[in-house]
Model the fold of this input.
Amino acid sequence: MARPWTIVDFALVWVGGFAGTWLFYGVGTMIGLDEGLIVLGLGGRYLGNLGVLWMLARRRADSTLGLSIEPKDIRYVGLGILIQIASAILIEPLARILFPDGPPPQQIAEIISDPGASVMLKLSLFSAAVLLAPVTEELMFRGVLLRAMEHRGRRIAMVITALVFALVHLLGVDPDRFLASAAVVAPPIFMLGLMLAWLTIREGRLGPAIFLHSGWNLLAALVFLLPGELLESVS
Done:
């Protein structure tokens, strides 16, 4: 008999991502990869997430998790870009106070913006940020977790999923200045999580949230791909 999605399912999907990361990272280390380790680890993470999701979905009542995409959903890419710009403007005063020498470092962003990184590595990380991350994370957070929490009420489900979403994104910030980094990184991600949850509930499917999420990541990734000299001249 098919069962509803639960918090345990979300935890299992999360563990699957960790297992995939370490498995692929370990294989890359054994075969002597250097620069490609981060890409291999990311690939393993998303494959681990999606693999566990696929196995669990076969025994769940809502096996598709609302994964439905329509051509009109592409308009949400533009909305995601606009929300990213608005959040950056709002958080800028606090970021300048806490980080007068620049924004808090994040691992993937640093690699994309590193002039010494190869074009292939940058494009691989760019593709992961714009394509793989939105699909996988929406299936996890607005798919599994939101459905697991809906019995507590939609508003509570939206807040909890947004909070967990924000906390997860703190894993890549500077541990030496964690509190300051969290103050800058967490609020925009939390608000994004609320918007994605609300949109998913309103539309009854994940397509709009996936494209909005992709637009949010797209602008950030494009900025990090630009030469540092150009960014300095613009600012």
